[in-house]
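Subject: sequence -> structure tokens, single chain

Hey, anyone have a minute? Need the predicted structure for the following. Not urgent.
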Amino acid sequence: MIGAIAGDIIGSVYEASPIKTKDFPLFDPRCRFTDDSVLSIAVANAILEGRSYLEAIRDIGSKYPYAGYGGYFMGWLLTNNPKPYNSWGNGSAMRVSPVGFAFDTIEDVLDEARRSAEISHNHPEGIKGAQATALAVFLARTTKDRANVMREVQDRFGYDLASALDSIRPKYSFDVSCQGTVPPAIIAFLESTSYEDAIRNAISLGGDSDTLACITGGIAGAYYGSVPDFISEKVNQILTKDLWEITKKFCATYGIPY
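Reply:
Had a minute. Here:
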């Protein structure tokens, strides 16, 4: 959870100015939280409070109208009668990490990930991206076995996770689809040596950096068990008080170090 939010914050600077290197300041003075963090926290709130995903996401998301939502999602957020719009965008995957922390069976994780996605991203690829991400978080947390994460996600969803980052990076470009975002984000985790290294891997791809790093960060945080204290402290400083309180409560409830 903290790992996903931190990834979003760190990657926020490079969304509009992609980079192809792991050598960059971890926290640029311009770092901010974006829609990835707001909606991840909204999903966490839904789980904590027993609210529907639709209610929590619309409630909390509408409080931060300038977080950087895509146009279709913004329309969904503001309409009086929101309907799913067949999206295959990576928004379903970027917000789903709390599901991988809160539920204790693969079946529940996959079902909740589907439910969290389909309120807006009901295209099969949108649901698949959310499920694959939540499953990776869950398996990273419960098995601590990278090979198992790779095998299960590949077998269940057909994503190619065998490519190396060095082969992906040169031609990789900005991609807002689940199918173009989730596999490289998972690979960024698979090749990592630490939480920070995972985030640097994701951002160095040069794509939708905040979302790549948010997805990677959720998985890496689950696998490595915690994020460094200075990163958690920075997240606390950057989030608004209400968003931090939900985050802190979720972490305390589900035994996530913060």
